[in-house]
Specification:
Number of helices: 11
Order of helices and strands: HHHHHHHHHHH
Number of strands: 0
Strand content: under 5%
C-alpha cells in the first residue's frame, strides 16, 4: 500500500467515525473548563476563610497571599482529579463501556521493568537538561512577536506559581506539595493522556504517530511554550513506556519520579540555605547528557525486548 493510499484510508476512517474520534477531545475540553475547576474549588473551600470576600480574592488572585498556599495546592489536586481522572473515567464508562482495568492490563508491577523504568527516568532527566536550557532561549520570528510576548508573560506567571508552591514552610507542606505535584499530577496526567488519548489515537493511526501526537498535545496543554520541546520529549518517553508494557503503571511511575525529583531537589536546596530560585531546574554538563542519551537507547532496547519476550512466553502458556 502506498503512503498516499494509506493516508487516504486514515482520513476516511476518521471522517466516517468523526463523532467517536472527537469524543475524548470533547471530554478533555469539558473537564478542563468545567469539571476540574468545580471539583478543585469544592476541595479548596474547607481550607479558606468562610466569607465571600476571602473566597472572591482567592479566586481572582490565588497565588497573591502565601496564607492561601495550602488551599491552592488542594485546588490543584482537586482540579487534576476532576479533569484528568473523573472526566476520563466517565468517558471510559459512558462512551467506551469499559473500566479502569483496561489501562492496567497484562501484568502486575514487576521488579525488573520497574528498575529499568527508574533508571530510564533518571537518564531522561539528564538528557533533557540541555534541551530545557535551549528551549528557554528560543526566539520566535518577528511576525510572531506578539505571541512571544504573551508566551513570555505566561511563562513568568507560571514560574511565580511554581515558586510559591515550592517555598516550603514546613516538612508537612513539602509532603503536601510532593503528593499534589508528583503523585496526583503524575498519575492523573498519565491516566488521561496515555491511558485514554494515546490508546484512542492508536485505533486510527500507527502507534508512533499516536504516541507523538499525544506527546505534542500533552506539552501544549501546559501552555509553557519555552518548555514545550522537553515536555514533548517526556510525553513521548511516557508514551513508549506504556506502548511496550501495556500497563499505565510504568509511565505513571516515571512521571511521578520526574515531578517528584524536581520537588525534592528544591526542598533539599532550601534546607541547605542555598539562595538558588525555587523554580530553577538542575543542570548537567553536555557530556553527561550525551552519555545519558546513549544509555537511554540501550536501556529502551532492553525494555522493549523484555516485554516482547514476556508476551511470547505468556501466549505460549495460554
Amino acid at each position: 500500500m502506498s503512503i498516499k493510499s494509506s493516508k487516504n484510508k486514515v482520513f476516511l476512517t476518521v471522517f466516517s467515525d468523526f463523532p467517536q474520534f472527537i469524543s475524548p477531545f470533547m471530554f478533555l475540553i469539558g473537564g478542563m473548563l468545567f469539571v476540574g475547576p468545580v471539583v478543585g474549588m469544592l476541595a479548596a473551600l474547607p481550607f479558606l476563610p468562610h466569607n465571600l470576600e476571602a473566597i472572591k480574592h482567592f479566586l481572582l488572585t490565588p497565588t497573591q497571599k502565601p496564607v492561601y498556599k495550602n488551599a491552592f495546592l488542594i485546588l490543584q489536586a482537586g482540579n487534576s482529579l476532576g479533569w484528568l481522572i473523573l472526566t476520563p473515567w466517565l468517558y471510559l464508562r459512558v462512551v467506551k463501556k469499559t473500566s479502569l482495568r483496561s489501562c492496567f492490563k497484562r501484568f502486575a508491577p514487576l521488579p525488573r521493568p520497574l528498575l529499568l523504568t527508574f533508571i530510564l527516568g533518571i537518564m531522561v532527566m539528564i538528557v533533557n537538561s540541555p534541551v530545557i536550557e535551549w528551549n528557554k532561549q528560543v526566539h520566535f520570528p518577528e511576525f510572531m512577536s506578539g505571541f512571544e510576548q504573551w508566551a513570555r508573560a505566561q511563562e513568568n506567571m507560571l514560574a511565580r506559581v511554581t515558586e510559591l508552591l515550592t517555598q516550603f514552610d514546613s516538612f508537612g507542606q513539602f509532603i503536601l506539595a510532593f503528593a499534589v505535584i508528583s503523585l496526583i499530577a503524575g498519575f492523573a496526567e498519565e491516566f488521561f493522556f496515555r491511558g485514554v488519548l494515546q490508546k484512542h489515537l492508536q485505533q486510527y493511526f500507527n502507534p508512533h504517530a499516536a504516541i507523538w501526537t499525544t506527546a505534542i498535545l500533552f506539552s501544549a496543554i501546559h501552555l509553557q511554550f519555552f518548555g514545550f520541546v522537553p515536555r514533548m520529549l517526556l510525553g513521548a518517553f511516557f508514551g513508549y513506556l506504556y506502548y511496550y508494557s501495556g500497563s499505565l503503571f510504568y509511565p505513571m511511575f516515571a512521571h511521578a519520579l520526574n515531578n517528584g525529583a524536581s520537588v525534592f531537589f528544591v526542598y533539599m536546596i532550601q534546607q541547605s540555605g542555598n539562595p538558588q530560585p525555587a523554580a530553577e531546574e538542575p543542570s548537567f554538563p553536555l557530556y553527561a547528557s550525551a552519555l545519558a542519551f546513549f544509555s537511554v537507547i540501550i536501556l529502551f532496547f532492553y525494555y522493549k525486548k523484555y516485554w516482547t519476550e514476556l508476551m511470547v512466553r505468556t501466549e505460549k502458556n495460554i
